[in-house]
Amino acid sequence: MFRSQKSKRDHSESQPAAPAPAEAAQAPAPAAPPPPQLAPADIEKLKTDAAQAAEWKDKCLRVAADLDNFRKRAAREKIETSKYATQQLLARLLPTIDSFEAALQHADPAGGSAAIQSLIDGLKMTLVQLHSVLRDAGVEVVNAEGQHFDPQLHEAVQHIESETHLAGKVIQQLRKGYKLSDRLLRPATVVVSKGKPELPEPAPAEKSADAGATTQANAN
To answer: Do 98 and 110 lie in a common domain?
Structure first.
């Protein structure tokens, strides 16, 4: 029995103490200090500082926008410079291609010897290689045959009347045009149709005779 009472006492001592009520645990919050009283001069100074801060913020945003635009423009100009770096060289190469094409156009392989035929074949191979170089560089041929005249791509050297071509149609291409990507290297030289020829107006004497004949026919 003594051992049992001792166990009960030890068990009661091991139990944690009951928490104190919440009201007793919380200490009263200290009262907030009253806001400082600012003099009118201090208020005006704060307003001035706020206005200057807003002005500097606006300036910083504008400078950042200008810098971003400058970076984009510089990157775009760098791409364009790299893209069109060979523009002048390619443009100077075009007359050489014209000469090759003119030579082949006037060559007569049927009436020549084997040596002449070999020379013509060599010119053709050279011309194919030149066109391959232009194509690899991004150059495209502007073919104006049968197209409507486009002043952005064609250069008209003559306008003639035509019974078979509508007005504004290209009748003949005298020289090919070339483009480098979206930039025109050389316009195509063309002859443009003015349409069907207009009927000549009758002479004044013929007009008077026709008018008199019409009046006499109406009187009858």
So the answer is: yes
Q: Quote the domain boundaries for residue 70.
A: 47-83
pLDDT in tens, 39-78: 888 888 888 989 999 999 999 999 999 999 999 998 888 8
CA pair distance 141, 175, nearest whole angstrom: 11
pTM for this model (two decimals): 0.54
Nearest to 150 by CA among 122, 170, 175: 170
Q: Is residue 180 domain-shared with residue 194, that is, in the same domain?
A: yes
Cβ-proximal residues to 183 (8 Å cutoff; 6+ apart), any chain: 84, 87
Nearest residue to 138 (alpha-carbon basis) of 186, 77, 80, 182 = 182
Locate 174 and state its tokens. 């005298």
Q: Is 80 helix (H, G, I), strand (E, B) or coil?
A: helix
